[in-house]
Specification:
This protein is an alpha/beta fold. It has eight helices and 14 strands. Strands 6-5-4-3-2-1-14 form a seven-stranded mixed sheet. The chain is globular and about 55 Å long.
């Protein structure tokens, strides 16, 4: 199996941290780990680069990480904080001179077609548009450049969305519940990313306590919490976590290998 480098492009919630107009301690923090763009990761292996979710911060995230090539995009769902950077893939189209494969559920891709109507429905666009190749997912595993990706159904409030397992790693963001059948897809992991918004309950996201329960059940060698709000200061929160559970932060880079 290819060794996969996982780079955290953003670890924050939909409003980002600092949050506009907020003067709380975390939003005013000098700790760079408390500066959180919207949630996304970059997967790198065998010379390929795959992004999970194109957030409204995607342009900045790509510039920060020095991303010069993009081979595929996976979408967890179609909320604004996960798709609204999609137009910024155009420079990759210019450079690579090809369409970029875009993967997501049928509902997600239908919503993308609506939100970005000018990409898909205008016969004679007046300016450049992203060139995307839509690939609807039905829950079945699929191969992407030699690595098997498995969609993992998650409950995000009343909605069902996808996380993704790839090799011995999994990225699960925006979940309030991980169904039992999905937990079975997460055995034997080296690395897992889990939603942990804050301590206070939220209708569509996990609390830190709930995320810790899932971390214990999944029993990955390393667990990282993401989609973090300004309620959680990085240093103080991480000090209370078990040794194998850490908070993700923007710029974090890890390698996913074989689980013990």
């Amino acid at each position: 199996m290819a060794e996969i480098a996982i780079k955290v492009l953003g670890s924050g919630t939909s409003a980002g941290v600092p949050t506009i107009g907020c003067e709380c301690a975390v939003c005013q923090s000098d700790d760079p780990r408390d500066k959180r763009l919207r949630p996304s990761v970059l997967l790198c292996y065998e010379g390929r680069n795959i992004v999970i979710d194109t957030t409204p911060d995607f342009r900045l995230q790509a510039l920060r990480t020095g991303l010069r090539r993009l081979d595929a995009i996976l979408l967890t769902h179609s909320h604004a904080d996960h798709i609204m950077g999609l137009d910024d893939v155009r420079p990759f189209n210019f450079r690579q001179k090809t369409a970029i494969p875009l993967f997501g559920s049928a509902d997600t891709l239908a919503n993308v077609r609506t939100a970005f109507r000018y990409i898909f429905e205008l016969e004679t666009p007046e300016s450049s548009i992203p060139k995307l190749e839509l690939n609807p997912l039905n829950g079945a595993s699929f191969d992407l450049f030699g690595v098997t990706f498995t969609p993992v159904p998650l409950r995000h409030g009343r909605s069902t969305i996808y996380g993704f397992r790839f090799g011995n790693a999994a990225y699960l963001t925006d979940h309030s519940e991980i169904p039992e059948e999905s937990l079975e897809l997460l055995r034997g992991l080296d690395v897992v990313f889990l939603d942990a918004l804050r301590h206070k309950p939220h209708p569509t996201h996990c609390t830190v306590a709930r995320a810790l329960e899932y971390a214990e059940r999944i029993a990955a060698r390393r667990t990282y919490f993401t989609h973090i709000s300004h309620d959680l200061a990085h240093q103080r929160t991480e000090a209370d976590l078990p040794p194998r559970v850490r908070l993700a932060y923007d710029g974090l880079e890890i390698l996913a290998g074989e689980a013990p």
